[in-house]
Design brief:
two-stranded antiparallel sheet; membrane; Solute carrier family 26 member 4; transmembrane helix; transmembrane; mainly alpha
Length: 353
């Protein structure tokens, strides 16, 4: 999942299955009727809508791939991608900041949503949970120091130190041993559902209601994926086939839609984690997918005491590479002022809009 795509999927789900559709009347002891929400039915319906939308997005992406529309990759200029991915990193940072502080905010959507979220975070900063803040800051510090060591001594260390895994295991042990949730009201992962839901066919009757949104999501998800891919393609010097990307995401989403899944695109934070820990080929994806599979089936229970602020801090520590792209702007300004203006305009528009 990716924040922008999550918001787009969320708006479709909320439009098609609002709370009002699931009101049930109940009378209490005083004889007054009270309106309640049937959350079980609502959530089940929302899963059906999200997975059907995922299936539809997959079909649209497969059609685009078959029609060779991937050529549009050529027209995504590097300054546009740099501005967009830096703004996306800022958006991810804001979404994780409130988790590190354990400050609750409303879910803002649309124009200036990042700004509204930041304002509310600072308004509520007095409610910060100190245990979560300390855990988050320690995690960021440790991750950044070890990554610097990995980078500095990469020729001497045969395998980079997997600091994210170490931090996760240690933090889970400390949280469980010190009972941080009860003693300090720390925000922990809590329940992690185990196992898989059986495959289900999509609700084809809903396609007509979501076709326009499906088209938008298919294009935006693709643009995000290719933007992130081009950043690393430039860094590691390899080419990207736009049609292959369309077909790969199309197959992923069609398959995932049958298993009650969510529209997949490139997750900026997890891509950054994988690249900065030394993942270079598709084998890294197979290994990470295999570990996720083991976690879903067996390990989930062990990670339940983990503080959410530690996970958020791991994500923030790995966004450093994306934020460093800001230093491209002075270079672009010297080389070509139009390129620099494209970068700045894309960055500002992505944050505001």
């Amino acid at each position: 999942p990716f924040p922008v795509v999550s918001l787009m999927v969320g708006s479709v789900v909320l439009t098609m299955a609002p709370d009002e559709k699931f009101h049930i009347m109940s009378s209490n002891a005083t004889g007054l009727n009270k309106t309640l929400i049937d959350t079980a039915s609502r959530d089940a319906q929302r899963v059906v809508i999200a997975s059907t939308l995922t299936f539809l997005v997959g079909i649209i992406q497969l059609v685009f791939g078959a029609l060779q529309i991937g050529f549009i990759v050529r027209y995504l200029a590097d300054p546009l991608i740099g501005g967009f991915t830096t703004a996306a990193a800022f958006q991810v940072f804001v979404s994780q900041l409130k988790i590190v502080l354990n400050v609750s905010t409303k879910n803002y959507n649309g124009i200036l949503s990042i700004i509204y979220t930041l304002i509310e975070i600072f308004q509520r900063i007095g409610t910060t949970n100190i245990a979560d803040l300390i855990a988050g800051l320690l995690t960021i510090f440790v991750c950044m120091v070890v990554k610097e060591i990995n980078d500095r001594f990469k020729h001497k260390i045969p395998v980079p130190i997997p600091i994210e895994v170490i931090v996760t295991i240690v933090a889970t042990g400390i949280s469980y041993g010190a009972d941080l949730e009860k003693k300090y009201n720390a925000g922990i992962v809590k329940t992690i559902p185990r196992g898989f839901l059986p495959p289900e066919p999509p609700a084809v009757s809903m396609f007509s209601e979501m076709i326009a949104a499906g088209f938008s999501i298919a294009v935006v998800a693709y643009a995000i994926a290719v933007s992130v891919a081009k950043v690393y393609a430039t860094k590691h010097d390899y080419p990207i086939d736009g049609n292959q990307e369309f077909i790969a995401f199309g197959i992923s989403n069609v398959f995932a839609g049958a298993f009650s899944c969510f529209v997949a695109t490139t997750a900026l934070s997890r891509t950054a984690v994988q690249e900065s820990t030394g993942g270079k080929t598709q084998v890294a994806s197979i290994i990470s997918a295999g570990i996720v599979l083991i976690a879903i089936v067996a390990l989930g229970k062990l990670l339940e005491p983990l503080q959410k602020s530690v996970l958020a801090a791991v994500v923030i520590a790995n966004l450093k590479g994306m934020f460093m792209q800001v230093f491209d702007v002075p270079r672009l300004w010297r080389q070509n002022k139009v390129d620099a203006m494209i970068w700045i305009f894309t960055f500002v528009a992505s944050i505001i809009l």
